[in-house]
Amino acid sequence: MKVTVETISPVKRALVVEVEADVVGKEFASAYAELSRSVKIAGFRQGKAPLPLLEKRYHQEIADDVVRRLVPHFYEEAVKEAGLAPVQLPTIDQLTIGKDAPLSFRATVEVRPPVALQPYQDLPVVRRPVVVTDVDVTSAGDALRQRHAQLEVCADDHAVADGDYAVIDFEGTVDGQPLADSGAKGYLVHVGGHAILPELEAALIGRRKGERFETSVSFPPDHHAARFAGRLVVFHIAVIDVKRQVLPPLDDEFAKDLGADTLDALRAKIRSELERRRRDEQQAEEKRALLTVLLDRHQVELPPSLVRREADLVRERIARHLEAAGATPGGPGIEPEALDREAVSAAEERVKGDLILEAIAARESLAVGQEEIDREVERLAKEARSNVQEVRRLLAGESGAFTGLRATLLREKTLDWLHTRAKFREEEGAAGGQEPR
Prior knowledge:
The protein is of the alpha+beta class. It has helices at 21-38, 51-82, 134-147, 198-204, 252-257, 263-297, 304-324, 336-363, 370-383, 388-396, 401-420; strands at 2-9, 12-19, 91-98, 101-110, 124-127, 150-153, 165-174, 177-178, 184-190, 212-218, 232-246, 423-426.
């Protein structure tokens, strides 16, 4: 096999491959032998048809079969010989083949570009101090009380007020006919929680247990739920019960319920947890700043296929975010073109950052060991409330999952390495009297 590498651009190579005629001839002979054993031709016993007749009738099919056998194999061999690491499947052209002639083809591939590393140690980073105030601790304590609050049934004559909880039965109708999937029974509504239509929330204010009433909602034509879009829907509502939230007192007993001996011990625990979270936020912020400096310092040509792949992932994340918010990419106030530009820009930044970090990791001989992968799998299992074997099975069943996991861990490891060698400068005006962040 003869391999010639042509450099088309920093991210594109062409491999011109020529396979010897004797290798091609043997493959043709093997293919014709297989064909002879399986094909039936009138006037000849199976397996006894003469080769010239087979060549006349089946030459193109056999040539195509030989190409399917040889090209992938010798492409892989050529990639190894050239020392390339393609980032996409090749484009094959200029293919010639004959029974008694060499096989030749050109495989064009995208590759990771060379990265001319600029200084990456002692990168300047502004450090914002970690500050947790008494107000922060009190707010966190109030949030704990909210999470452990109980709902208490109100008196029958209690009128629904903002902040109350109403248990309702409701159903939507259009022109007097029930509308599918437009209602529920025993539905708990937090009035003021903005979890249902604002018109329904507003209509509940002042209502009492046992009341039945109607309220109309006119939906715009581009509403994200097709069954409501462009319709005037009349909702029939029955108030089954009214409840109010009762917060537990912030005292020693409450602290004991949460695993602390006293209220002071609980507050100390809250402060420690807030400090830990803010240190994590501080470190994440500093790593983002490090990456921004690296991006500014380097010029890297990006493989288009990597950018396209990453942009598709960004688009999927944007779509999921919009769906969770009850919106769609083509909905009101949302420009698909702007979202696409955002996705491509984010993808370019991510790919460029990955290429720079990979180059730094290679120069500094940073690598991810099996123990680190095992720890990450255990973490993922714990996060998913699953077992390690199940997570491993899922990763093994997804093409490239373990490779992607290793790449993600190496990215974080490289950022950690850079973070320990950064040059930090305290944020101006941060000393004393710092407001909580």
